[in-house]
Aminoglycoside N(3)-acetyltransferase (Kitasatospora cathayae), 257 residues
Amino acid sequence: MISTAALAERFARLGVRPGMVLHVQASLRALGPVEGGAGGVVDALCEVLGADGTLVAYTATPENSSTSRIHQEAVAGLSPAEAEDYRARMPRFDPAATPASPTMGALSEAVRTRPGALRSGHPQTSWAALGPLAGEITARHPLTSHLGPESPLGRLYELDARVLMLGVEMARFTAFHLADLRQPGVRLREYRCVALDGWTAFRAPDLDDLHFAELGARVLGAAAGVSSARIGTADCRLVPVREAVDLADGFLRSGRS
């Protein structure tokens, strides 16, 4: 089992620094046993970031959306009446209380529930942040910029944040969506989800991550600012958001030419 102190030392060796804005994407299963579990990892990260650092996590909630893949799988094979009953019982998004989806990982929920953490109000793609820049990161999150430049993800780019990929492959590097949205001809689709005041619908870019694995491999081959290390049983990387997104943008444009 890795102690919190040992974990903090390894994060610092990887390149996590005091005062940094750090977005963490983590697989605790890949990391292995840690003292204190998800809370212990947050303790270690906060120790290294210090009082001036800000820790950020994606706390999306696809379970409250009738247009999500999770919902489509849940209602497959149901009769129209059964599907309507399922929708009536779907959890309403409450930014103060709704847990992050289990698909986000236990660390995202540990950040969300940390005393002092703030969360953006998007009913589908919220973000939680802890630290002095938490308010700036989470304050504004328009429905139509769910993972775009006006979202907390966009502010991570503006703040030159780093992403700690803790046992998670670049195929899940969320910030690549910012590069996708710079490309011409981005299609819009309708999203529907339920919040405290009832159902809402909005049109926003139709995004997927099916090409992220190939894109991530190209970015890693070209990036100068990425550091990597083995922590516990996990392969980890510290990735600059701005460099990764700009490189990905260039690769996507060259692929279209």
Observations:
- The beta strands are 21-26, 54-58, 118-119, 127-130, 162-166, 188-195, 198-205, 227-231, 234-240.
- Residues 169 and 213 are 8 Å apart (CA to CA).
- The mean pLDDT is 95.
